[in-house]
Amino acid sequence: MILEHFTVGMLQTNCYLVGDEASRTAVVIDPGGDSDRIVCRIRELDLNLAAILNTHAHFDHVMDAWTLKSKLGGDIYLHPKDEPLLKDKMVGMGAVSRSAAGVSALKVDRSLREGDLLTFGSMRFNVLETPGHSPGHVSFHLSDADIIFVGDTLFAGSIGRTDFIGGSYDQLIRSVREKIFTLREKTVVYPGHGPQTTVEYEKRTNPFFV
Which helix (H) or strand (E) holds 202? Predict the structure, then answer.
């Protein structure tokens, strides 16, 4: 499996490129900027972009989703509860583009739900609903590799903000306890900002849970 990390955009968001070496199929998770760099790398690796997976709809995680699609194809995935946030003027694309409220290109191709299994080549992503940072926030679990991409639900030593529209501290804490901390302790956690961590380390040291 190919797994590469890019720090992108004005808020230094973690964007991930995940590829299947056998089928040359790839997905990009949370493309919040710097699409030219991501496109260049996908082409260098001779990968075919099948999907753009968004953990949530805040602009720093989705900003270049449609640019990637226009250049390389691939379906854009998002939970329906977060779709209304796409044009929001505080946290969505409306915050970075005056015309976003009227842009038809902010179209989502496929909706995400709890329990969905997304298969791309040999890669199988389990969709976990992890609301709290946003109402439709999801995480993508590669159970075969003990990897989870958690967006802004959990960080190394911290958690995501819950004071944005649709946020809920209680929901976020439940999401972490019930969906992430129930995974195998060796599971590597790839967050939306900052360094990677593990389930075991966060259960043992994260001040919001110990």
Answer: helix 199-205
3-class SS at 52?
Answer: strand
* Single-letter amino acid, residue 5: H
| 101 three-state secondary structure | helix
**pTM reported for the whole predicted model:** 0.95
Domains and CATH numbers, the chain: 2-205 (3.60.15.10)
CB 59 within 8 A of CB 96: yes
Which has the closest alpha carbon to 146: 176, 131, 124, 114? 124
- C-alpha distances (whole Å) from 50 to each of 149, 150, 197 are 18, 20, 27
Divide the 210 residues of the chain into consecutive groups of 10 and give the mean pLDDT of each group. Answer: 96 97 98 95 98 97 94 97 91 72 72 98 98 98 97 98 96 98 98 98 97
